[in-house]
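A quick aside before the break. I want you to see a complete sequence-to-structure record at least once, exactly as it would be stored in a machine-readable document. Don't worry about memorizing anything.
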Amino acid sequence: MASLLIKKAYLHKPNAFKNTVAIISNATRNHWNYQYKPGQYPKTPEEREAAAKKYGLTIEEYQPYPEDMGYGDYPKLPDIGADSKDPHYPYDNPELKRNFNEPFHAIAELIGEDRYDISMKPRIPVWQQWSWFFGVIGGFFGIFYYLEDYKFGRPVTAKQYPQDGPHYLFNAN
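That is the input. The structure line, written in tokens, reads:
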């Protein structure tokens, strides 16, 4: 019965079967789940309350991203990288420093423990890092420019021209 339906669908619309297989394989391969998609942006207080409950947050904690960013009702979580979280806290999943049912950050793929820590305060300020960088590059360029006329080594023989007479070639034959 199922094979007859598949055969009929394939003969009727050949691309429909291919598209269905592509969607299923893509969802399986990339572990996509329809429940991962956020809902519509909450416009009323009731929708905000329902979205906060959906993500396990209180109404005071729940703050969605701006509507034009396209994240829907997904909560705007604080920008704390995994490397800045307490390493001694008893997490449910200590490898990722996460608790069960805790929402992911919208840019979690960028701020993991082995990636950029968005909440880290650098030991040396960024303006000082850039000034050191440009100072070193500028110093090397200045030394190069100043010493451009003073080549290393000196020529040993005078340049040979055809009108100056016979010249010797150092060939084996």
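Two observations worth writing down. The chain has a mean pLDDT of 81. Residues 90 and 148 are 62 Å apart (CA to CA). We'll return to this after the break.
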